[in-house]
Amino acid sequence: MGTDYIPVGELSVGFSEYALPSTDCLKGKKTELHYASGNQATLTFLSEGTLGWETRDKNRLEEFICSYRAIMPREDLCFVDFIVPRGSGVSLSIILDMTRGIATAITGILPTPKEVMIPLIIRAERRMLLSSVHVVFEHAAIDGPFLDSTPCHGPTGDLVGERIEWVYSSKHAYEHIYLNENTYCWHCIAGGEKGMADTDRCFFYKIADGLYLFVWIEKIVPTIGVVLEDLGIMRSYGKIFGYESYDRDGKIANFPVGSYGTLLNRTEYDLSLLPVCK
Question: Which of 120, 131, 250, 260 fits a disulfide with 217 by CB distance 3.0 to 4.6 angstroms?
């Protein structure tokens, strides 16, 4: 049974075997995001792998050019992912839902060395999240104002109770047990972490029928995973982001992942069987 937690840099080896190929469908296009907060951002897709980013937050303007990766898991739905190039360990994943004209942006923020070194018992005592990774979800309208009537990809409990085996490569397989809307268990059944398991914070959003956004943040090795799970065809696509090694020397890994899933079972609780206290 494994006992060593693997840093993200080592974890990346082999996990992209079943990743969805990147797409150039956004090349040459410009997309404006109008956030529910009132902020705006413009993505200019300069080539298949390069984009220009401009965001306006009241009087503050931020611009940069960076590499990106985009996949299209369903028609008119793109998953765009890139690292913000300012040396702060920030990644941005954006789900562009062209059919509905909306987007969900997921910002993953890796912790500073000081934040990482806060013991779990201190975090519990201070009522902090056990993971030192931060994640922010933002909703936006595409190429138009965000109105009161603008729909959003909403949180969901549809996956709660499901136990799914996800096979990431010919050597790597994990099972996920979705305990509730905010917590899940992972268990490595094949690969470098075989025999290891943990319970971590997670988030679920419904993107379309049978298609879900699943995001998790780990508390031992600072990591964020952002994937789309298509339960109609039992496939997942997305990325994992974290520091390459334990020493947190500033080098980060942000790599695509993909997997094939098998539903093992679904647990449902009959609360009517609880004893009635008088």
Answer: 131
Position 278 in a domain: no
Q: Which residues pair with 61 in a beta bridge?
A: 56
Is 112 part of any domain? yes
Closest CA to 39 of 24, 61, 11, 69: 61
Distance CA 110, CA 90 (A): 6
- Contact call for residues 208 and 229 (beta carbons, < 8 A): no
CA distance 203 to 257: 18
Whether residue 271 is contained in a domain is answered as no
Q: Which is nearest to 96 in space by CA: 53, 143, 40, 134? A: 143
Task: Identify the burial level of 127 via C-beta atoms within 10 angstroms of its C-beta, where 0-12 means exposed, 13-18 middle and 19 or more buried.
Answer: exposed
User: Can you name the residues that pair with 165 across neighbouring β-strands?
Assistant: 175, 262
Phi, psi of 11 (to 5 degrees): -65, -25
- Residue 1 has a pLDDT of 40
pLDDT tens across 73-114, in order? 999 999 999 999 876 799 999 999 999 999 999 999 999 989
Within a domain: 273: no
Measure the CA–CA gap between 143 and 146, rounded to whole angstroms.
9
* Number of other CB atoms surrounding residue 63 within 10 Å: 10
Report how far residue 221's alpha carbon sits from residue 253's, in angstroms, rounded to the nearest whole number.
13
Q: Cβ(120)–Cβ(130) under 8 Å? A: yes
Is the full-model pTM beyond 0.85?
Answer: yes
- Strands, sheet with 134-142, edge to edge from the N-terminal-most edge strand: 60-67, 50-57, 40-45, 30-35, 134-142, 102-109, 90-97, 77-84, 69-74
